[in-house]
Amino acid sequence: MTTSEINQIQALLSTPKQIIIVPHKNPDGDAMGSTLALYHYLKGFNHDALVMAPNDYPDFLKWLPGDETVLKYESETERCEILLQKADLIFTLDFNALHRVGDMGDKIGTSEAIKIMIDHHQQPDNYAKFMFSDVRMSSTCEMVYRFIEMLAHENRVTADIATCLYTGIMTDTGSFRFASTTSKTHYIIGKLMEHGAKNAEIHNAIYDTNSYARLQLLGCALKNLKVIPELRTAYITLSQDELNQFDFKKGDTEGFVNYGLSLNNIIFAAIFIEHKKENIIKISLRSKGDFSVNEFSRQYFEGGGHTNAAGGKSDLSLDETIEKFISILPSHKNELTS
Ligand code: 5GP
Ligand code: MN
To answer: Looking at domain 3-207, which CATH architecture does it have?
Structure first.
């Protein structure tokens, strides 16, 4: 962001405003952490702020400070649409295109509110007046900290803000292990701890609150894991029947795809999850090194994301989707094995 843009945002925020903060659909730790952190920050300056999520999110995020204030567009559509119309400012966090919030995207597009994007996904659309978009960032939470820094308000980071930001940086960096983690990321994590983020408690709340059924579902996913060693690829499938058998709840399959990538010599991992109700196969893709799952997903599975982590979908059946996936792979042999 330029100094002029920062000055303009500073001017906008110098008097109380009605502000809506929006994460992407099916929000993850970074999306909820960043939106709730910004909410607490703006509340600290007496803005009438609120987080409006397109739909619900997993229980393991529901302890985040401020969670009880979050509105969900899917279940309170009418009220949310009125609020979107009336808003002075809309912050869109952790997504790069309005279709990533589903039906709510049109309402954001037509609202007269000034839009501010804070995001680290590739190829952002041009719908926001102010764009803080940087694909080198580990997480949107890291960017919100930097945004607060640019506004010279590090001293206004409360324990609630610190807790939310720590959570999203932790989840989006795989607990500080992905290549996107920089010395600045660690510097910010240190600052967040100084401001009151309790690291052990946060790790516990996110990663050590599994249900027995979820671990059984993981067992099922690992049994279904297939490896194509000559293409350094591994993939997992989960059918709707399998999800039902293990009492699937939103968020239960989070992180499963990474098990494929933990295999020696594997650099490309995928998970295909059948969602009968929506009649789609949800796909998560992960890679190590230069192989871009963002490009792969854009080209074949109507999705996108980052170089090493992307999502997509397929309208084919689960078996047909796997067939398609396997038939595509050989054309990428050079990238996968070089
Ligand atoms: P996940 O596999 O965890 O759902 O998503 C991995 C990354 O890709 C996340 O950063 C997510 O925001 C992004 N992503 C997931 N699905 C899509 C999609 O359909 N389109 C785009 N552009 N990004 C996606
Ligand atoms: Mn993110």
So the answer is: Alpha-Beta Complex (3.90)
